[in-house]
Write a structure and sequence with these properties.
Blueprint: E1 4-7, H1 15-24, H2 26-29, E2 34-37, H3 40-49, E3 56-59, H4 65-69, E4 73-76, H5 90-108, E5 114-117, H6 122-126, H7 135-142, E6 151-155, E7 160-163, H8 173-176, H9 179-197, E8 203-207, H10 222-236, E9 240-245, H11 247-250, H12 253-256, E10 261-264, H13 267-278, E11 283-287, E12 293-296, H14 313-332
Parallel strand pairs: 1-2, 1-5, 2-4, 3-4, 5-12, 7-10, 8-9, 8-10
Antiparallel strand pairs: 6-7, 6-11, 11-12
Helix pairs in contact: 1-3, 1-14, 9-10
C-alpha cells in the first residue's frame, strides 16, 4: 500500500503537534506509513513544545516514506514557516493551503494512498484565496467530483452519521431536503460502507426532521411528503433502510445497535450525538471520491495550541481509518 499524505492544517492550530504525537504513537496505534506535506522545522518545534522527541526526515518522493517511517517522520517539500501556536496569520494560512493542495494532488495522482487533512480555519483560508466552503468541497473539486456527490460522514467507535445538509441556516433546511437528495446520499453511503468499510449489507437509519417524526402531520409534513417516499424507493432497490425515526430516540444505546449509519437532516442533528459520544475519536471521512480522504473531526483549537492539552485521539483515528480504507481498496484493485 502507498503511504498516506497528511496536510498540516493551520500551523497556528493543534494540527502540527497532533501529527507529531500520532507519529510518536505509530506502533501502538497500528498506523500505516504516512508523510507530511511541508513544515519540517515547524513540526519539529511543535513536537518539542509538546515534549516529543521527533526526528524529521526530508524525502523527495512519496515512495521513500515507508523506508524511513519507522525511525523518523517523513516530510515532503520545502515549504515551511514559523511555529506560533494560537497566533494565526496570513503566512500560516498560505502554508496550510499549499500543504493541502500538495497532499491532495499526490493522492489524486496515485502517488499517495490517500489524504488526511489537518484542521483549518476557513475564514483564514478565504482571506488568502480559498474559495470553497471547506476541505471536503476542495478535495471533491480536485477530484472532479460535484459537491453534492461528495458525502461527509462522521465516524467514531460508537456511531456513524451523515448530515444531509451541512453549512446552511436552520431555517433553510426544510426546503433543502428533497427525495433526490436523500436517495442520492444514501446510495453513495451504502456503496462506500460496503466497499470501504466491509459491510456487505449496511443498515441505514433515516432520521426525521420534525419532533416525533411529525406526529402524523401535526408538527410538519416533511416526513410523509419527502422522507418516507425516499425511504420506500431505496428499500425497493434492496437497501436496508428504515425510518423516518424520531431523532430524540435514534441515538440511544439500544437504538444504535440496530443500524450501521444514521442519516440526519441537518448539521447539528448529526454532529451533536457524534461529538457527545466520540469527540476524541471522531473522524470526518468523505464518501463518493476516487481517493481516500479523512480528517479529525475537530477544529484548529487555537486557544489550546502549543499547551500540551489537545487530545491526539481523533488524528490517530483519522490516520488509522484512512490506512484501513486504502488497504481495502488496494486489495480489491
Amino acid at each position: 500500500m502507498k503511504p498516506l499524505a497528511v496536510s498540516l492544517g493551520d500551523p497556528a492550530g493543534v494540527g502540527p503537534e497532533l501529527i507529531a504525537e500520532a507519529w510518536s504513537r505509530r506502533a501502538a496505534a497500528g498506523l500505516a506509513p504516512f508523510f507530511v506535506a511541508g513544515g519540517a522545522s515547524l513540526l519539529h518545534r511543535a513536537a518539542s513544545l509538546r515534549g516529543i522527541e521527533l526526528p524529521v526526515q526530508p524525502i523527495s518522493r512519496p515512495d521513500e516514506a515507508p523506508a524511513v517511517f519507522g525511525e523518523a517522520l517523513p516530510v515532503l517539500g520545502l515549504s515551511d514557516g514559523e511555529y506560533r501556536p494560537g497566533e494565526p496569520d496570513p503566512d500560516g494560512a498560505r502554508l496550510a493551503l499549499e500543504s493541502l493542495t500538495m497532499a491532495t494532488g499526490l493522492a489524486r495522482s496515485g502517488q499517495a494512498g490517500g489524504v488526511v487533512t489537518g484542521p483549518i480555519a476557513k475564514a483564514r483560508l478565504a482571506a488568502v484565496g480559498f474559495d470553497h466552503p471547506g476541505q471536503t468541497e476542495f478535495v471533491a473539486a480536485a477530484c472532479g467530483v460535484e459537491p453534492q456527490n461528495a458525502v461527509m460522514m462522521l465516524a467514531g467507535p460508537s456511531l456513524r452519521t451523515i448530515p444531509l445538509t451541512v453549512h446552511i441556516a436552520l431555517e433553510q433546511v426544510p426546503a433543502a431536503i428533497t427525495r433526490e437528495l436523500i436517495e442520492d446520499r444514501v446510495r453513495i453511503a451504502a456503496s462506500a460502507l460496503s466497499s470501504d468499510f466491509g459491510l456487505a449489507a449496511p443498515r441505514i437509519a433515516i432520521a426525521a426532521l420534525n419532533p416525533h417524526a411529525g406526529e402524523d402531520g401535526r408538527m410538519g409534513d416533511e416526513e410523509a411528503r419527502v422522507i418516507a417516499p425516499a425511504i420506500a424507493a431505496l428499500a425497493a432497490e434492496g437497501l436496508a433502510v428504515t425510518g423516518p425515526h424520531p431523532a430524540d430516540a435514534l441515538f440511544t444505546p439500544r437504538a444504535r445497535q440496530t443500524y450501521d449509519l444514521a442519516v440526519c437532516m441537518y448539521h447539528d442533528q448529526a454532529l451533536v450525538p457524534l461529538k457527545a459520544l466520540d469527540f476524541d475519536e471522531g473522524v470526518n471521512v468523505t464518501l463518493g471520491l476516487p481517493i481516500v480522504r479523512t480528517s479529525p473531526d475537530h477544529g484548529t483549537a487555537f486557544a489550546i495550541a502549543g499547551k500540551r492539552l489537545a487530545d491526539p485521539g481523533a488524528m490517530i483515528a483519522a490516520l488509522r481509518m484512512a490506512g484501513e480504507i486504502a488497504a481495502r481498496r488496494a486489495a480489491a484493485a
